[in-house]
Amino acid sequence: FLGIGTNGVLEIREDNLPREPILNSPIQVNLETVENEKQELISASLDAISEVCGLKFLEGNIQESKLIFTSANEIERIENQFVLMVESEAGNAISNPVLQPWEEVLEKGILPELILKKILIHFGVDREFHRLSQAQMSQKFHLIPETKLAKASNSSEWLLLLILALFGLERFLAYRSNQ
Fold this sequence. Notes:
Elements: E1 2-4, E2 10-12, E3 27-33, H1 36-53, E4 57-59, E5 67-70, E6 82-87, E7 93-95, H2 102-108, H3 111-123, H4 134-140, H5 155-178
Parallel strand pairs: 3-4, 3-5, 5-6, 6-7
Antiparallel strand pairs: 1-2
């Protein structure tokens, strides 16, 4: 990339040169040591991640996989593999039985987010979040002036008062006619 050097001349900047990709898609995944019900849910979550983020996942055997999901506590792994436990108190688990049980993860629908978060942290993909300026915020959100806001109708309140008044009048006339 070009940048202005210290002497005011355009020069190639080394810090912005393209780097090697951190993640190569498709990522080999193994789900063999996970129960069938959880396999389907994890597979659906991986499909959702593929659809939203563009990461592709391909099921493979344990030796070739970079990402292994397991229900077991201990599993043999090769140096460049990432083992994600489905439910454990360990740090690389999707759900924690004490803090966030599996049922709660499914109920809230956050399984794809949790998997993606663990994958991004492991592979070192760090998305930088920049705070929006006040001008950028005002471009994204438009305030509707109070004069243009829809006003709540109070016709139901008036109708209720009218019914009560008619009921009271009817009772008054009925009492008067009996005397």
